[in-house]
């Protein structure tokens, strides 16, 4: 005999998964974007140390992505 | 305060025979930023360095090589009189040079000996396992000697070839020494080759290897002792002459700088012309100094600053002393240009403000405040001090927000009444005082202290509002800058248009809420966009979405803050919730819990410098400076020297 069990998704759990996806995926995205900028910035800084400020700014620009992700996660919880 | 120091362009002209006096006076005054002269397309010639230069540079090279040999470090010493140093200079330099040369030579010889000993030791070491007198290895007429590494005992295989041999074999190290009659040498060699024989060179010494090595060890210890004695002698020399070396190095560096000054100056056959910049308020001071040094024979005049010159004006900050540490943050980005507002004073407020809003924890504020004060006291480096001062400013702000948020190392100080009952605070009997319902989010109640973890929505909206204020201050400063540089109409179209656009959006939002027709907002918005296109071209409307992303970017203030709280409270939970509960008996677990607590919070303290610091910095650099700041000004670098080891003449 095969019995069919009805599974119910807990809305709170789904919310949590959604929030985790929002933070996790945007975190990955920030990381991928920052990786390229960071290497280029360090290369530039090796040539000219005065570029530290600009390099730092350019490197942290994609950080906004994960911040948005975090905000979305906080809003959805 | 909001502007760089006012500068004057000055030209000094005179006859060549007073050039040296003039350069001397300028160097001493340490005021005049010399504009390097460029010969291209000019009838004037670059000056020739003073004659004393080559002699001085020889001495300087000598003193610097001595300093590096002795390992003299820059330390604060008592200032010496230049006259005394000068009179000693030649004598001292020669004796020092000689003494050091002798010592260095002795050391070199000893080092060579040491090397030799270590290599003969390496050669002898394999022979100690057999320990035959080394003379026994050579001088035979009818015997051949094999000495080396083999794989496995070669006795059986050699016995098959001949019976007249003598073999010493050490199983442990695999060293074998075989004496065999010469006739059978070739065959034995073949057999050995099969056993992977690797020949060792017999050292050209006589005696038993183990005794020889003992002798070498004695010799080595002796040499090491000698070298230590020489090092001690060098150390005494260093102690004795360090002050002198530092002082004379400084003195000679100054001389070199002066003697090479003509290379930056325009000259004709009999006159010179020095072009440069200095702060306007010090112009008369320099005029007096120069005329006093040359009996009024050099002519100083101020020049009008022409438009192309404005880009070249060297920039000296003009800020109150409390603001000066923030200049480091400006330097990191680039000094302001001459006509621009210097935002150091603005970030003096906003940088610590954002840092404090992000971190906002009494515990971390106190730890980092103590840390910064200690570093400031212990390290005398000029590079570290401003950074520590910035950290102190930030911690004062953090302390303020920490009290406002009621947080201590991730614990909430006050108890909180929420939907799920009451969470107790760290301080017994300290209840949250509820003031009003949050206008931004249903169910969130603003009170004292502000529980950030329970007011997320309110804080997100509030931080965006703070961001909008910050961004608009940026547009305002941009407006002033633009007005100064390109006039009022450019300012209105380029920067004012943004404010009109924002106003339009605000009206539209009010319209959406039903307070007035939406069309009003739309019209104002469109007017703003048209102004923007006129001011900035196509690039203006393309930038429009940045208004949204920039202001949303300020939500990082709460986002990064929350992450810090959660790390801290997780550490607390692991230490005093999972490992050991307060109230349960004290034991090994208590110690373990305390270790976890300290380790976790140390980690979070380090993160508390980096994360809020970088994010607060980024909000200044990207969101704020992006609205108005150009930067890229030249540093004001006056011709002169700040003496550390010698007194001013």
Shape of chain A: elongated
Rg of chain B is 40 Å
Q: For the report, how would you describe the main beta sheet of chain A?
A: none
For the biggest sheet of chain B, the summary is:
6 strands, antiparallel
Number of strands of chain B: 18
Low-confidence stretches of chain A: none
Output the helix-strand order of chain A: HHH
Helix-strand blueprint:
The complex is a heterodimer of chains A (77) and B (649).
Chain A: H1 11-47, H2 52-60, H3 63-76
Chain B: E1 7-15, H1 19-29, E2 33-34, E3 45-46, H2 52-70, H3 82-124, E4 143-149, H4 155-161, E5 165-170, E6 175-181, H5 185-194, E7 198-199, H6 209-260, E8 266-267, E9 271-279, H7 283-293, E10 299-303, H8 307-310, E11 314-315, H9 327-333, H10 344-359, H11 362-378, H12 384-405, E12 407-408, E13 411-412, E14 416-418, E15 421-423, E16 433-437, E17 445-448, H13 456-486, H14 488-512, H15 518-536, H16 539-542, H17 545-553, H18 556-579, H19 588-624, E18 634-635
Parallel strand pairs in B: 11-18
Antiparallel strand pairs in B: 1-9, 1-10, 2-9, 3-8, 4-6, 4-7, 5-6, 8-9, 12-13, 14-15, 16-17
Describe the protein in words:
The complex is a heterodimer of chains A (77) and B (649). Chain A has 77 residues and is mostly helical. Chain A contains three helices and no strands. Chain A has helices at 11-47, 52-60, 63-76. Chain A starts with 10 loop residues before the first helix and ends with a helix. Chain B is extended, with a radius of gyration of 40 Å. Chain B has 19 helices and 18 strands. In chain B, a hairpin with a 2-residue loop joins strand 12 (407-408) and strand 13. Chain B has helices at residues 19-29, 52-70, 82-124, 155-161, 185-194, 209-260, 283-293, 307-310, 327-333, 344-359, 362-378, 384-405, 456-486, 488-512, 518-536, 539-542, 545-553, 556-579, 588-624, and strands at residues 7-15, 33-34, 45-46, 143-149, 165-170, 175-181, 198-199, 266-267, 271-279, 299-303, 314-315, 407-408, 411-412, 416-418, 421-423, 433-437, 445-448, 634-635.
